[in-house]
Specification:
Layout lengths: L1 H23 L3 H25 L4 H7 L3 H9 L2 H4 L2 H14 L7 H18 L6 H9 L4 H26 L18 H9 L3 H5 L1 H7 L2 H11 L9 H9 L11 H12 L7 H10 L1 H17 L5 H10 L2 H4 L3 H17 L4 H21 L7 H4 L5 H8 L10 H17 L9 H9 L2 H4 L2 H6 L7 H11 L5 H22 L6 H7 L11 H16 L7 H8 L3 H21 L4 H15 L3
Helix pairs in contact: 1-2, 2-6, 4-6, 6-7, 7-9, 9-14, 14-16, 15-17, 16-17, 18-21, 23-24, 24-25, 24-28, 28-29, 29-31, 30-32, 31-32, 33-34
């Protein structure tokens, strides 16, 4: 790498001198010398770009103080600019100089200068005399004309792309020699499409003829280094939403990758329809968007659902997932994350938050489902999906218990009445159920707040939620254990004096049982619900948590439980003032300990 750096510096000086010589004379000798050295100069530009793209703007000028002069000399040399390969690399290099968020007037002026040079490259090398005279007659200098020309060129092409999208592409391979677009390289790729000449703009059949799949592929390649220029947004959007009838994708993968990267880094902002088209047409971009979200979630504070909700909404994935194909891919990646982490509570909570954001986006887009539920959840019964999709907010509180019983009956039928190993087996049903945290996290509360005999349907639902791998016999044992603990807790709630130690003993938490076992996690959550809702539970809440939280892992589990409970209460509006205040105080105290 050190040798490459030295070689680049030496080459830089050589080509800076060459460009100065070529700039000062326009003799036949200098023109011939330019053509002889052009291939080597292109290779130098490519190496220069590879170096520039790894630096920010300030670092570039520290290492190459005259880089703007070198690029300017190259951009105004007609013999260099006549070759499309040179133009492409020059545009890449210029884009590296742009400050995405200019901090001072010098950086702003540099950005304006770069945009002016880019406009010069995208415009014709030499305007027709009548065009130049026309602009001068209006009082415009070329420097003022270029940006407006670029904007109008982009809008014209975007409009034509939309028309082609509506009318279908002309995919016949017709002879286009009369336009000579192969002769002038980049000029033919952009300028012939977008010439300010009214002759071309008025001949719509010519545009249709030019809009072949090959032209679209070439245009998408040309747009790659220009993605982040605001004036190019309409063209990028038009390319994304424009579909032909070819059996294979027309646009270049580099175009999709560049657009996706710019979206993820918030360098451009496109309508949701364009983002959906991007992720539908280029699966790697959708996968990268999901991985980008995962990276944000991993690097953020654990067990903070409000922050997770902000990240998820900011990703645009819930809105895009209204299209079933995108939803299925996103959901499958969540499934993989869940399996890789062995059902980590943080992943379950994230899935539930995503599902809530998705349902909100779906409701905003259309009050009724545009697609059948089967397209979103193909491996479950529509009746189960329909009852789970009910928002608890839309169900009277007096009917919550009955709804949970109905959910339990449908799940039990799907789990125990089907062959193990099928796609509709226990794990698939459990994966569906955990999406709907509004119902899944409500079961324990309903059991503790009911003075009647614990319904078997809710006991089954609770046992299944915490341990979907269990067989029928093992799940029945868990139900017996949970029923006994509930009986002890309900009896203790009527006691005038409660102690944390007695509560732990009654729940069987003072034994040597593995605390990581699903049944133990279930019982811990019952205890936490008890201290939040039982009249005497508030006074011993801190002592109970101190006895339970004897490892960092369990402490994080308790923090997650409290955060998720508060998040759900806030959304459903079901917390009591005392319980909510206690939960927030406990959460704040525990977060200072980890």
């Amino acid at each position: 790498m050190a040798q490459e750096s030295v070689d680049l510096s030496c080459d830089y000086q050589f080509w800076m001198q060459k460009l100065s010589v070529w700039d000062q004379a326009s003799t036949l000798g200098t023109q011939q010398d330019t053509c002889v050295h052009l291939a080597r100069f292109q290779e130098f530009l490519r190496k220069m770009y590879e170096a520039l793209k790894e630096m920010d703007s300030n670092t570039i000028f520290e290492r190459f103080p005259t880089i703007d002069q070198l690029l300017a000399k190259a951009c105004w040399n007609p013999f260099i600019l006549a070759y499309d390969e040179s133009q492409k690399i020059l545009i890449w290099c210029l884009c590296c100089l742009i400050n995405k968020e200019p901090q001072n007037s010098r950086q702003s002026k540099l950005n304006s200068w770069v945009q002016g040079v880019l406009s010069h490259i995208l415009s014709a090398l030499r305007f027709d005399k009548e065009v130049a005279l026309f602009t001068q007659g209006l009082g415009y200098a070329p420097i003022d004309y270029y940006p407006g020309l670029l904007k109008n060129m982009v809008l014209s092409l975007a409009s034509e792309l939309r028309e082609n999208h509506l009318n279908g592409f002309n995919t016949q391979r017709r002879a286009l020699s009369s336009f000579s677009y192969h002769q002038d390289g980049f000029r033919s790729k952009i300028h012939v499409f977008l010439s300010p000449s009214s002759k071309l703009l008025t001949k719509r059949h010519i545009y249709r003829e030019l809009m072949t799949p090959e032209r679209l592929a070439s245009l998408s390649r040309v747009c790659v280094p220009l993605i982040t220029l605001p004036d190019v947004d309409p063209l990028v959007e038009a390319l994304l939403v424009c579909h032909g009838h070819e059996p294979q994708e027309i646009l270049q993968p580099e175009f999709f990758e560049a657009v996706n990267e710019a979206i993820l880094l918030k360098k451009i902002s496109l309508p949701m329809s364009a983002v959906v088209c991007l992720w539908l047409r280029h699966l790697p971009s959708l996968e990268k968007a999901m991985l980008h979200l995962f990276e944000k979630l991993i690097s953020s504070e654990r067990n903070c659902l409000r922050r997770i909700e902000c990240f998820i909404k900011d990703s645009s994935l819930p809105q895009a997932a209204c299209h079933p194909a995108i939803f299925r891919v996103v959901d499958e990646m969540f499934r993989c994350a869940l399996l890789e982490t062995d059902g980590a509570p943080e992943i379950i909570a994230t899935i539930q938050v995503f599902m809530q954001c998705f349902l909100e986006a779906l409701e905003k887009e259309n009050k009724q489902l545009r697609f059948a539920l089967k397209t979103y959840f193909p491996y479950t019964s529509p009746s189960l999906a329909m009852v789970l999709l009910q928002d608890p907010q839309d169900v009277p509180r007096g009917c919550w218990l009955q709804t949970l019983k109905h959910i339990s009956e449908l799940l039990r039928e799907a789990v125990e009445d089907q062959t193990h190993g099928s796609r509709g087996g226990p794990l698939e049903s459990w994966f569906l159920f955990i999406h709907f945290g509004g119902w899944a996290e409500m079961v324990a509360e309903q059991l503790l707040r009911s003075a009647a005999e614990p319904p078997a349907a809710l006991l089954w639902l609770l046992a299944f939620y915490y341990s979907p791998h269990d067989g029928r016999q093992q799940r029945a044992q868990t139900m017996v254990q949970v029923k006994a603990v509930l009986g002890h807790l309900l009896a203790m709630s009527r006691s005038s004096s409660l102690s944390a130690r007695d509560l732990q003993t009654a729940a069987g938490q003072d034994t040597e049982t593995d605390p990581r076992a699903p049944a133990q996690q279930l019982i811990r959550h019952l205890l936490l619900n008890f201290v939040l809702w039982a009249p005497g539970g508030h006074t011993i809440a801190r002592d109970v948590i101190t006895l339970m939280a004897h490892t960092a892992e369990i402490t994080h589990e308790i923090i997650g439980f409290l955060d998720q409970t508060l998040y759900r209460w806030d959304r459903l509006g079901i917390e009591s003032p005392r319980s909510g205040k206690l939960a927030r105080e406990l959460l704040k105290e525990l977060r200072t300990q980890v």
